[in-house]
Amino acid sequence: MVTTAADLGVLMAAIATPYDADGAVDTGLLSTLVEDYVSRGVEGIYCCGSSGEGLLLSADERTAVVETAVRAAEGRIPVVAHVGALSTREAIELGRRAQRAGASALSMIPPIYYSFGIEAVLDHYRAVLDAVDLPLIVYNIPQFTGTEFTLETAGELLGDDRVIGLKQTAHNMYALERMKAAFPDKAYINGFDEVFVPALAAGARGTIGTTVGLQVELFQAARRLLDAGDLVGAQRVQSRINHVIAELVAVDVFPAAKYLSGRSAGGAGALRDCRRPFRPLSEAARTRLDALGATLDRFLAEG
């Protein structure tokens, strides 16, 4: 299943990476997680991004995650592989592996750590596009990478037919709207769950999020209400989404979201802690997250 821009108006879960008792990727648990997400209405899987600890995994582990997700999805929903890496060489290799694994599309952060100029960043993207025969979603997450994509800096990429969209993990709705106005055929995908409704209003077509797998039913409800013209109703659902997010952030967002993701694979905590240097969750944090799980159950039951 190769993805086009038209396929990206979806609710895509940025999936966590489960580990077994030895710390290896647990492909069985990952398959279970994908199956539960599909059954609940998740419309796409995003592998090895921030939520999936992609930069803490080896190339072989990242490949195993993509292969497993593709097999588990069975062509029912798109599977996007994040292949961002420190070097262009590594990103190309990860992209080629993702293509062989059957990924629907690639996504990629710009190169990090060194203060690369925008021309070096664009060269990096062009090299991957030239080496891998899959469409690409540019991943804009400036608070982590130090590079912000706007119309001025991303225009050349958005003008490339091989680039089908941009994931806007930034609160700059003005930049999103300006890119949408200039390149309306591309898919602009929200990346911050807390501004899902505002991003749709600004021109986003879908979302890729850490909490989509936890509360896809709320995202469905918010989208449905907004499509029906009920902005107040959509804002009310966004507020519930944001209550969950605020609690996760108060604990430590990625380890906390991973803990609750286990609810889809045997119960909260079924997914082991994130890799170091993330700190293991304390018992107090787990107790707080269990209470959040009960609140989330109530939200989901009430719609």
TrEMBL record:
Statement: the UniProt record of this protein carries the keyword Zinc-finger: no
Descriptive protein name: Dihydrodipicolinate synthase family protein
Pfam families: DHDPS (PF00701)
Keywords of the record: Lyase, Schiff base
Superkingdom of origin organism: Bacteria
Keyword tRNA processing attached: no
SUPFAM superfamilies in the cross-refs: Aldolase
Taxonomic lineage: Bacteria, Bacillati, Actinomycetota, Actinomycetes, Micrococcales
Family as reported in the entry's similarity comment: Belongs to the DapA family.
Record-linked InterPro entries: Aldolase_TIM, DapA-like, Schiff_base-form_aldolases_AS
